[in-house]
Description:
The complex is a heterodimer. By secondary structure, chain A is an alpha+beta fold. Chain A contains ten helices and ten strands. The two termini of chain A are 42 Å apart. Chain B is 38% helix and 17% strand. Chain B contains 35 helices and 35 strands. In chain B, the strands form seven sheets. Chain B has a nine-stranded mixed beta sheet with strand order 14-35-34-33-15-29-32-31-30, sandwiched between helices. Chain B has a nine-stranded antiparallel beta sheet with strand order 17-16-28-27-26-25-24-23-22, with helices on both faces. In chain B, strands 3-2-4-13-5-11 form a six-stranded antiparallel beta sheet, with no helix packed on it. Classes of the chains: A alpha+beta, B alpha+beta. Chains A and B meet through α1 and α3 of A and α5 and α6 of B. Chain A: One of its GO terms (cellular component) is apical plasma membrane. Chain A: Pfam families: CDC50 (PF03381).
Amino acid sequence: MAMNYNAKDEVDGGPQCPPGGPAKNRRPDNTAFKQQRLPAWQPILTAGTVLPTFFIIGLIFIPIGIGIFVTSNNIREIEIDYTGTDPSSPCNKCLSPNATPCYCTINFTLEQSFEGNVFMYYGLSNFYQNHRRYVKSRDDSQLNGDSSALLNPSKECEPYRRNEDKPIAPCGAIANSMFNDTLELFLVGNESYPTPIPLKKKGIAWWTDKNVKFRNPSGGESLKERFKGTTKPVNWVKPVYMLDSEPDNNGFINEDFIVWMRTAALPTFRKLYRLIERKSDLHPTLPAGRYYLNITYNYPVHSFDGRKRMILSTISWMGGKNPFLGIAYIAIGSISFLLGVVLLVINHKYRNSSNTADITI
Amino acid sequence: MRAPAYPGSARILDMTECLQWARYHWQRLMGSRNRDDDERPYSYSSLLACGGKSSQTPKLAGKHRVVVPHLRPFKDEYDKFSGTYVNNRIRTTKYTLLNFVPRNLFEQFHRAANLYFLFLAVLNWVPLVEAFQKEITMLPLVVVLTIIAIKDGLEDYRKYKIDKQINNLVTQVYSRKEKKYVDQCWKDVAVGDFIRLSCNEVIPADMVLLFSTDPDGICHIETSGLDGESNLKQRQVVRGYAEQDSEVDPEKFSSKIECESPNNDLNRFRGYLEHSNKERVGLSKENLLLRGCTIRNTEAVAGIVVYAGHETKAMLNNSGPRYKRSKLERRANTDVLWCVLLLVVMCLTGALGHGIWLSRYENIMFFNIPEPDGHVISPVLAGFYMFWTMIILLQVLIPISLYVSIEIVKLGQIYFIQSDVDFYNEKMDSTVQCRALNITEDLGQIQYLFSDKTGTLTENKMVFRRCSVAGFDYCHEENAKRLESYQEAISEDEDSTDTPVDSLSNMVKPRAPSCRSVHNGPLGSKCSNHLAGSCSALGSREGASEVPHSRQAAFSSPIETDVVPDTRLLDKFSQITPQLFTPLDETIPDPLLETLYIMDFFIALAICNTVVVSAPNQPRQKIGLSSLSGMPIKSLEEIKNLFQRLSVRRSSSPSLAGGKEPSPGVPNAFVSRLSLFSRMKLASPVEEETSPGSERPQGSGDSPCPPDMEKQNSDPGLPEGETAPSPGQPSTSTLCYEAESPDEAALVYAARAYQCTLRSRTPEQVVVDFAALGSLTFQLLHILPFDSVRKRMSVVVRHPLSNQVVVYTKGADSVIMELLSVASPDGASLEKQQMIIREKTQKHLDDYARRGLRTLCIAKKVMSDAEYAEWLRNHFLAETSIDHREELLLESAMRLENKLTLLGATGIEDRLQEGVPESIEALQKAGIKIWMLTGDKQETAVNIAYACKLLEAGDKLFILNTQSKDACERLMSTILKELQEKNPASPEPPSPREGLPRLPATQDSRLRAGLVITGKALEFALQESLQRQFLELTACCQAVVCCRATPLQKSEVVKLVRNHLRVMTLAIGDGANDVSMIQVADIGIGISGQEGMQAVMASDFAIAQFKHLGKLLLVHGHWCYTRLSNMILYFFYKNVELP
């Protein structure tokens, strides 16, 4: 390249016999950027800065942790396993696949009343909704009401795409495995007959899911007509247009369906089933007392050692019951405080022997 | 393009390496094409036969090429030979429009990173393992490839434009049709073409010089485009052509040229020119003009192209930037490989786990979703698919972007290093140059530093300090004072611009941009301040201003050119009279003999060199010739018999010197010149001609030094009166000496201070103005140039006064001392005297060396003509051989340089560069061990080591200077024992495996020790059996000084330390002798200083001064290392810990 350079010089420089004065000075600019003098700050860790930091972290984190822990502990939660694996359980009878439909009732007692809105969940264990191929086994455009996708679902849905030469609506493994137990809650009060607790089935899905992501197919008067030419998923009892009686909670926009379609990340999960709204300020939503749970037992979990639970829970400003966060805060705060003390002792003991002159930065 | 065995495919390459790779292969490709050209079936005939006994058709070995003139009569032959050689079109681009896409892709996929991306993208197209949307995974790959392709394309386009520009440069080529020189583009020049070039034109292709307007057949070229050396080099017209008085006529040129096939050795060219009558003339590099050089100082030249285009030496030498892999990067590479392993393990675990988990639910179709056809995949197969899926999913584990990021960060670091204003050197107008792009962080990891001495630690500005002639030491105290007061003198000087001299020099100087002019005028004010009147006539002073920018580093600065003579020596010197030579018998009394020695000594200083004399303000004027025109020398014309002794009339008195010849205006009146052998003009005829364009009124006829008068007169800006004060001054001159090495110039300047001024130098003769004797013209019979093997140089001249053949030899003292005659023919008394002189001189030499001076010995030898003729015949045989020429020439030189008579010795000071001691102290404080490797002698080296604080006054110095291996071993063990006893507290010297530098804190408590080892002992220490012991020994020493080390030993030392101690080494040097060391070390640093550019070309970083090393290593090295290592650590954290 030196050669090229030289020749180029010659071209635009003309004769070089007198290589004139230094027209171009190669001195680099003396700017803050080029000389790496831009203001910068770098923490230099000394006892004077580290020790207070540790103590401050300790002092801040421990109260926060305690607060969170207390809040979490104030949340009422009850969990009832109704799988029926225990022979004494009322639902044990439903384990055999022949008994369909199967009804069972489980009694339980609330020691304390549940204040405010109460959320009713169903929980499944050992159910791998996170399986990669399971997760993919759905057709979002079909669920969004796309008419062509309705009749010709995506390949991802295989092998739950077509049944008896008809497209399945909703297609795919997720929809096919939809949770279909029915839970009803009764308060056994002082009266002779039990009071049914009103369970609200709307408002349990995300607004975007309900209004944007999931739509019923267009056209046709009744929902049934709109789903014409499709067939129900293999495992379903009823077709999709008969999930509910209310038209705005039927078909693809059925909220139970929407909740199910949002797959869980872990094999043990809970999904919102119903809302129990607070009636008035005077009475607790669920007063303490005896209750019984009526279950229409459809969903088989025995084959994969699964468990089914019903959960009732209240919430606080930080969500559901979660003691971990508080404990973590307290632990970190304590460790930090402890380290601070240790370092303080070390610093106090060895301060004079160390030669700070060595450290020049 | 054949697929090369590419060693790096297993490694993960980065961008630069890819480019480097491409460049390398391109060159390989070019090279192989060249080779194909030459592998035509030639048979070898004896090329060594120098009598022209070749057979009818030129038979050549595969190694040779035949160049036939590109003319009609030789059309057949031309087509046969030269027609097949590549023409002068160059193409440095990698791609063409057509092959850009495939070739660029091909090259990009040599990067493992890209291959990995591609593999993942392809994997994602397999439906069974597909993890993401197919198109999305292609996206990053496509983006990366496109960006790099655009970058490559732009780079290539830039090269293409430059190529085009160069290819379309115009030069004058002889045209067959028009029978004259016509303009043609460079690209159309072919081998065998005749080219005519004027001054300042760039040479388009390697060509053999056939004609030069210079009457001596010399052409000056500047090779700064090739090697950065800015001094002018002489090239010689092919023998037999120099004597032609008219320009060579291509139509009549009927010779053939046979030469080596193209190679990249700039300093070698061998071949011969065969005339139509089968007579052969040897060709050497002296006859070759290299592409890319510039013609200087010569009106016009013509030549025949022998190598063109990519086969020129310049192009073959064009290698891209060096590629070194930094230690950190190697470490990162292994870590990445660990990541790959981790990925595989993770994927295997995932696959296994998946298989096992799936086998539990084999028959449950809940989330074990069956295949479309209904059957469930077996868990084993599912696990296998899962493995590949996992690889796609966990691809981020391998920090592929790390490489790109490192590359970018390093570019940024280089930008910051290069723009550091602290590295700027005002004098050179240069700053640090990062030639290797990816070892910035290694700068911060240096543990051992190997430094050259001359030019690196010292300025390599040679200052004549003292000399010893005939056993008497002349200490030049005034000169020493001058050097001390040099700095203030400069400032004083700048103030005193009102003197006429200053105005004179000021007028001359600005017009002398390319070379530093020296004006020996009437005494300058500062000179008289501290000088006795004895020097008033000789007081020399430098110009008022420094030359604005010193690209021409080869030219001497005032501090070197000014020498204040020693009064004692001057007194003796003044005794030299022409009468001294009248009784040419051997009965010279002792004092006279001493005077004779002094005279010979100064003559040797003035002529035993290769200094080019030029006038600074008119570079194209030939001083030498103009001064010759004033010479009344009438030589005898009969030169028919080569070995017959010829007489040259002695110019016995200065009064004879004067302009008797009617020189002005006579255009190129060449007297027929005969030359039978190269540089063999025993007596060449008087050359009476002037340089074109210069008018030379021979005003002061009695002045023995007309040239500088002419110079001043010819300068239109100078009033006549300005020159008037000078007639009394015998050596008023603005001569400029261009020397290959600064020592030579220093000696010439020293000689000039004693009124022994080198006036001119042509290949045939040297003119010296000698104070009392006037101009002496020495017939230059032969020059044996300096080389590092012989460590000396010689000139063979015919002494104009005694008319004897005299050999003047100058060289390292150790060498010369061995070559001195043991039995002098001059009788017992003289012999005894010689012995005394020898002893005394040796003592002085030791003294000089102790003072840190570079010593040189000057010796002479008088030969009889018969002896000379005999030697010459043998030498000629050696010179004309193509193969083994070097060995034969060496032998021949040995035959000449023996039985010498010692004249004296010189001591030249090599001043320490500014800031060197501070830098060395800082580096040692940082725990870096510094070794000094130098070719200088022990005393000088140790002295410099003390001066630059490498050794401290309290250090215990161990000297390893043995002549045998056993002694060396014994000495080493004794030293080692002693050291270990002295340092009982210190742990065992580190074994080679754990050779970490001790912390400075621990060193303080210990005895500081330095080791000095000489070349001979080093040779033993480097042997396998003693290596370990040597390293143990050096580990105990704070500093190691290796003196008298050859370049090869330097590199071996570096290699030894690097390989056995597993440490990071840095070598710093400035000269060609440091190149091997620079290349071997982990980091090579070149100092762009006085000794040309070879070291810089071989280095990874080039700095202007040694003092910059401190900041480069301790600040930038540290920053680069911490920043880069933090970045790499973060990358691993980001990719591995947070996928």
